[in-house]
Model the fold of this input.
Amino acid sequence: MRVIVDGVRYQWTRIEGLENWNAAFQESDRGKGWIESYKRKGGNSYTQINGDKLTVIDEDIPLSKSGGFYVKVRNNYRVGLRVRIDKGNYWDSGGFKRKPSPGRFNFGYASLGPFQFSDAFIILESGDALSVDIDGDYDDVAQFKVVQGGQVIFNGSAINRNVSLKIDEVRILRPEQDEVQGPLEGDGQGDLDGDGVIDSEDFDPYDPDIQKEGDIDDDPFEIEDDEAVIIYDQEDIGGYEIYVSPNLKPDPFPFLGYLGLAAFFSLILRGSSNG
Done:
C-alpha cells in the first residue's frame, strides 16, 4: 500500500508485536507505538484483555458502573480493529452521522443460535479515535463514537452489552526506499533500476539514485518527530490507498437465530410435559 505526498513515496508497513493490547499500552506509556492516548474506565476488571482482544464489560449489578474505553491513534500509524457488539441491529440505531468511506468502516450483523451480534471492521489512523461507554457512566468517554479524518462518523447511544475490540493488524507509514532487486542481464545492456543508465555503466545498478561514484542516495530514512504526513479527506479519498478488509455483509439468514430460540424453548416444554 503506497502513498505519494509532495513527491515522496511512503509505504504502509506492517509491524509485528503491537497487535497485543498490553504491549500497545506499555509502548504508549513510553510515548511510543500506535496509541497516542487511551482511557480504561472501570480498571482491568471491566476492560478485560486477552492478547489481541479487549472486551469492555457490561455490569448489571445495581449501583455499579460498567466499563468504558477510549483510544486515539498516533500520527502515521494505522490499525485495523474488528468490533463485536453483543447486540443485534446496533448499526441501524441512528448513530451514523456521515456515510463511512469504503474499507474504513465496514459493518454487518451475525447470529449464533439465539444470540445476535453487530460486527464491524474499522480502520483508525493518524489522530482517529474510538470510544465505548457501555452504560453512559462516564462524562469523558462517549457511549460509542468513531472519529475518522477529524469527523464524527458514528455517535451512538449506550449499548448495555459487552463490546470486544480485536486488533487485526498495525501498520506504520515509512518512506519507501527505491532500491531494486533482481538479476542483471548477462551483456550488461539492461537497466534494472530504471535510471536511464545501462547496468554495465551504472556504478550501482540496483539504486536509481546512484549512477556514478560519489552520488548520494537521497532516500529519506525516517519521518521526523510525530508530524502527520497524511491528513485524509473523509469525503474525497482519491489518491489514498484504501485498506481492503474482508466484507462484513448482513447475515443472510437472521431467522436461524429465532429458529434456534424456538427449538430451545420447545425442548424445555417437551421436558416439562414428559415430567
